[in-house]
Every structure is written in structure tokens, then in C-alpha cells.
Design brief:
Elements (H helix, E strand, L loop, with lengths): L4 E7 L22 E8 L2 E7 L9 E7 L6 E8 L4 E7 L2
Antiparallel strand pairs: 1-4, 2-3, 2-5, 5-6
Length: 93
């Protein structure tokens, strides 16, 4: 945290398969990637992103927002191309 700005760093665990690679047998590996990612600070949206198949496997995301204080909650959620979802939450330190 710098002043009232909070730096958030997230390593997103996901295969992020583009649908353009082939397996050992030469068959195309189906696309499976994060479509939407969002972050909330104490329930208030602070980031919204639309991703696609060009984002790398296990992407690293970094962003800042104003108004956070130690102990406040940060929640990061995503939805992928198969409808799978994940949400993780932590407190600002």
C-alpha cells in the first residue's frame, strides 16, 4: 500500500487453452480460457476485465486502486469459457 493507493498482485491459476494447439495425436485441444475477471474492494467493484484465448497460462495480474486500508477485503473472481468460476478473497495488509 502506498499512500491511500493499494497495489494488488494476483497469480491466476488457469490453463488458458487457446483452442489452437494440438495434442500428441494431432487433435486440437479445445479452447478453455477466462472470459471475465473482476475485483471488488469491500464489495465495491474496482476492476473489470474481459479476457480471451491470447492470455497466457496462469496469468499474473497487477493493478492499483485508491481508498483501501489494512484489513479491508479484496475479492477476485473469474468466469471461463466453460462456465467454471472461481472467487478468492484476502485482506489488505
Amino acid at each position: 500500500m502506498q499512500g491511500d493507493k493499494v497495489l494488488v498482485r494476483v497469480l491466476v491459476t488457469h490453463e488458458m487453452e487457446s483452442g489452437q494447439r494440438k495434442d500428441a495425436e494431432g487433435k486440437i485441444i479445445p479452447a478453455h480460457f477466462i472470459r471475465e475477471l473482476s475485483a471488488r474492494h469491500n464489495g465495491r467493484p474496482v476492476l473489470s476485465a474481459q479476457w480471451g484465448p491470447a492470455v497466457s497460462k496462469n496469468p499474473f495480474l497487477q493493478f492499483t486502486f485508491a481508498g483501501g486500508k489494512p484489513g479491508d477485503k479484496i475479492q477476485v473472481s473469474w468466469v471461463d469459457s466453460k462456465g467454471d468460476t472461481r472467487t478468492d478473497e484476502t485482506a489488505i495488509s
